[in-house]
Design goal:
2 copies of one chain form a homodimer.
Chain A: H1 11-18, H2 22-29, H3 36-49, H4 55-62, E1 67-72, H5 78-93, E2 97-102, H6 107-119, E3 124-127, E4 142-145, E5 155-158, H7 160-173, E6 178-185, H8 194-205, E7 209-216, H9 222-230, E8 232-233, E9 236-237, E10 241-244, H10 247-259, E11 269-274, E12 277-278, E13 283-284, E14 288-290, H11 293-305, E15 315-318, E16 321-323
Parallel strand pairs in A: 1-2, 1-3, 3-4, 4-5, 5-15, 6-7, 6-10, 10-11, 11-14
Antiparallel strand pairs in A: 8-9, 12-13, 14-16
The structure holds a DNA duplex.
DNA sequence: ATATTTATGTTAAACGTTTTACATTGGCAA
DNA sequence: TTGCCAATGTAAAACGTTTAACATAAATAT
């Protein structure tokens, strides 16, 4: 019994249906010059059969897969989620597919991701990894975000040093005189660590009292709240300005202080980092240093797909800005 | 000049290096029976050349791509982000790749996603779509989450009706006598709409005063806050129990009421929906009805990849539970 | 009228696998 | 020695494309 409709018609079927050769069909599909009459015949056949290009065959032949791997530790942190969202849209708008790889901060998984990329002949990787020593190998093009993997691998990040500076300046300008910088950070040397340096340099040059509270991301978080608790005396918090490493952390601090009736921004002003926006109200969750996430994504994709501009070891540093979100006096 | 190291060695290279045939190499790679001596020779050659299977060639031949598309509107809502995180991990653990497609709630993009799936001969789709009338066509296997696309497409969701019931019961048991249900919902008939029915059925059978505040997700959100404002009189909110459609919405409401000095949970108790966890403190952002997101992901992947169990039009409904998160009295 | 160019199509080889059908070898029974 | 079987390996076709090299016919120039 002959099947009435072929579920997966191939170019050969289209050729037969239209009475033309395989090559002609291919030309029509790829927009190469073909006689008008033939083109119409082919198009009709394609429509009739519901033909769809088989990208695997195409990739095999042309050695171009139009797919890019996104290697990230998790999607449970909004910064990663936002970034992935933007990266994916950016790739899709250029006709590329995004292969998502979640590594869970696991060096093994990160390493395996790169093997996968190679074995799937993907066109490239955009990676945000945490292993200190990742075997990258050449033959795949990589762009990292916020991490320096290797001398000649371009890295896209926001201007973290400047971000730290901005936060410190703003707090000081708004009248704060005793500052606290809270950060949860990883042991790997990544771009975000520069926020601290920026913050401290301003405090020092302006001669402002400050403290840096550092916690590694593989340690339990209680110490941070313990610290806060210890510095509340008679309903007053010892510091009048706080800069947090992320909006998420800021949110926690806000909550903690509110519960203890420390008023923000009256008693303490607070600036976060990232620029996370509440989807519902389209407003920032706190005053913050906003990273240009969409622009970072766009740039990363751009560099990955157009390596012509000689940005081999380029370190693209995109501008951040301060935005008010209710946790500062302005 | 002969290249010293071949960047992309193929099975042919391995065959040559080991002095054996292509077929033998293939057998070794696929774990088929092969003489011990030959196997070792091949393995040595593979290691020496750094050979990696070309999955595109393999997919072309075997018609199995080991890739699944994840079609979602956005990653900017934590529920979607969490779900994507779990889905991806679930797929990866089974050796599948996750192709992420962000549709931005755009029907066109949703439709195109399905075309892409077909053209890339992907093994399936897990979709969370918003178009009322999506042309699915057969020949691709689909599992939806929270949406009913078609009679014979399995749908995985949490028990939304029960979730609504649970929330109402809890609030009433904790002493609330005037309830408010706030929802932002889409026009498409999706599973989450059942929360309302569950909530109302309990209120009615227990004879409790309640109001339902409904807003479409394509309308501006101000009316909701306007409503809240209108129902605050002399520092008292008219309702003593609120059930929100999502934790995100709940967060907004909490903030709004706090700013107006309405105390939660003393004056008003509040239950959200989803079970979003703050990454930092590993605690719920509010009292909530928790969806078993990881289990939903696991189930969806399972059904998609093992269609043997006759779950053609299956409607898998996973249990939800109430968890306390500080915005209720218990 | 013939030669030359141009426009359009076609054939067939490749891409890197998998897999069926076939070939070789050696061991063993008769 | 001959014949047979199992064990192991090989050759070659196939998957659905792309593309270089070639063929044909029509159109123009000589």
């Amino acid at each position: 019994m002959k099947r009435e409709t072929n579920l997966n018609p191939t170019m050969k079927d289209v050729a037969q249906e239209s009475g033309l050769s395989l090559a002609t069909v291919s030309k029509v599909i790829n927009g190469l010059p073909v006689g008008k009459a033939s083109r119409q015949k082919v198009e009709a056949a394609i429509k009739k059969l519901g033909y769809q290009v088989n990208n695997y065959a195409r990739a095999l032949k042309s050695n171009k897969t139009y797919s890019v791997a996104l290697v990230l530790p998790s999607l449970k942190h909004p910064f990663f989620a936002y970034l992935t969202d933007e990266l994916t849209k950016s790739l899709m708008s250029r006709g590329y597919r995004a292969i998502l790889m979640i590594t869970n901060y696991d060096p093994d998984a990160e390493q395996k991701s790169f093997a996968m990329v190679r074995s799937n002949k993907m066109d490239g990787v955009i990676a945000l990894t945490y292993s200190p020593d990742l075997e990258v190998g050449d033959s795949i093009s990589i762009v990292t975000i916020d991490r320096h993997l290797d001398e000649d691998i371009p890295c896209v990040s926001s201007d973290n040093f400047r971000g730290g500076e901005l936060a410190a300046k703003k707090l000081i300008d708004l009248g704060c005189r005793k500052l606290l910088f809270m950060r949860i950070t990883s042991r790997i040397q990544g771009e975000p660590n520069k926020r601290c340096a920026g913050f401290e340099s301003v405090c020092q040059s302006r001669n402002i009292d400050y403290e840096t509270l550092l916690l590694m991301d593989d340690e339990p978080e209680e110490p941070i709240f313990q610290f806060l608790e210890n510095h509340i005396h008679d309903g007053e918090f010892e510091y009048d300005g706080i800069f947090c490493n992320s909006d998420i952390l800021a949110g926690q601090v806000i909550r903690f202080l509110s519960e203890r009736n420390i008023s923000i921004p009256d008693q303490v002003q607070l600036i976060g980092y990232d620029g996370i926006i509440d989807r519902l109200t389209d407003s920032y969750v706190c005053s913050t240093i906003e990273q240009p996430i969409a622009q970072m994504a766009e740039t990363a994709v751009n560099i990955l797909l157009n390596p012509d501009e000689n940005n081999a070891g380029a370190n693209i540093c995109l501008p951040v800005r301060y935005v008010s979100g209710g946790t500062t006096k302005e």
